[in-house]
Amino acid sequence: MHMWPPCCPTVHHTVPVWIAREGEDVAILTGPGSRKARNTERDPRVAISLVDVDQPYASVLIRGRVVERIDGDRGWEIIDRISRKYTGQPYSPRTDRIVLLIKPDHADAVIFG
Predict the structure, then answer these.
(1) CATH number for the domain running over 2-111
(2) What residue ranges do the domains of the chain occupy?
(3) b or e along 43-57 (b: 16 or more beta carbons within 10 Å of the residue's beta carbon)?
(4) What is the pLDDT along the chain (113 residues), one digit of tens a residue?
(5) DSSP 66-113
(6) For 41, which DSSP code?
């Protein structure tokens, strides 16, 4: 996932994230004080690049904006659902986590090769 810090539009913060669909939106989890959370508080624009493990030359590129921050019981329901997708188990440890809900503005599927 990529965010544009408002102070430095040419400097990017890119980190791998766990991701899932939440209705028409995209959900990721992070710490409430993480750089992702701080940057998207100032500027909600994000870009996400997804690669299919079974088709490494196929990818999806999504641009959108964070439209909601979800915590509490509703947040943990989403976090546990995302964790089960990746690990088969609820998220552990139970530390401070929030969900960033992203509304896609633009998406492209790309196949290289």
Answers:
(1) 2.30.110.10
(2) 2-111
(3) ebbbbbeeeeeeeee
(4) 555 555 555 456 788 899 999 999 999 999 999 999 999 999 999 999 998 889 989 999 999 999 999 999 999 999 999 999 999 999 998 889 999 999 999 999 999 87
(5) EEEEE-HHHHHHHHHHHHHHHHSS--SS--S-EEEEEEEEEEEEEE--
(6) H
